[in-house]
Amino acid sequence: MGTLEYNSARPAIGVDDETLAHLKIVIGTKLRRQESFMMTWLPEDQDKAPGRLTIWMNPSIPLIIAFDSPTMPAIDPARVERMMENLNVRGELVLDQLG
Q1: Mean pLDDT value across residues 21-46
Q2: Cα(66)–Cα(77) distance, rounded to whole angstroms?
Q3: Are residues 17 and 80 in contact, defined by beta-carbon separation less than 8 angstroms?
Q4: Rounded Cα–Cα distance for residues 80 and 19 (Å)
Q5: What are phi and psi of 6, to 5 degrees?
Q6: What 3-state DSSP class applies to 22?
Q7: What's the chain's average pLDDT?
Q8: Above pLDDT 70, what percent of the chain?
Q9: pLDDT confidence band for 68 (50 / 70 / 90)
Q10: 17-32 and 77-90 helices, crossing angle to 10°
């Protein structure tokens, strides 16, 4: 389980390495193009923090992607394409709907 840390304002978001590898491509592509967007996820501990969290992803804000494993997972180009299409249509990347 890797982590995605954005602006160090909240605890890092836990994401499995395979999904994180795909997120890295999608987020990196959008931010490299200077395109901001929203990202939403469910907190890991729903008992302490029920609901959803949303952040505004912007190229000027620090982002740290940390993988648990030193081996990079295989990338499924179709998955990256689906994620990018969903993000472009909705303007939001929803972590619990990735696939």
Answers
A1: 89
A2: 21
A3: no
A4: 10
A5: -120, 115
A6: helix
A7: 87
A8: 88
A9: very high
A10: 50
